[in-house]
Each structure stands twice: as structure tokens, then as C-alpha cells.
Amino acid sequence: MKKARELAILCEADVGLIVFSCTGRLYEFASSSMKSIIEHYQEAREENNCPLLNSTSEAKK
Fold this sequence. Notes:
Mean pLDDT: 88
Order of helices and strands: HEEHH
Oligomer: single chain
Largest sheet: 2 strands, antiparallel
Radius of gyration: 13 Å
Structural class: alpha+beta
Low-confidence stretches: none
Helix content: 40-55%
Shape: globular
């Protein structure tokens, strides 16, 4: 969470981070409204026809 906050400040960026621990606990950070960050993300994906990565192995490629 600390690094997400630092990234938002240093880069003057909207940052949203959602983490589920191995025990299922939810952690989240949003530099502004999480809802607006997610909406912005969805709009950008649609405009660029970017599919959502489905697995960790795809993200590592």
C-alpha cells in the first residue's frame, strides 16, 4: 500500500490497488475514487481493444 501511495504521488497518477491475501483478506488503496479509477480502466480497455489477462502466467509473459 505504501508503494502504491508513493507511485501516485511521485508520478501524479491515479492509482488503484486491490489485493486478496492467501486467507482471503481484502486490502485496497485508491489515490482517488476507486470507482472512477475502475471506470477509467474499463473505458481505456474498450478503446484499445485490450483483453483482460486471465492468469498469472499470462501477466508474466
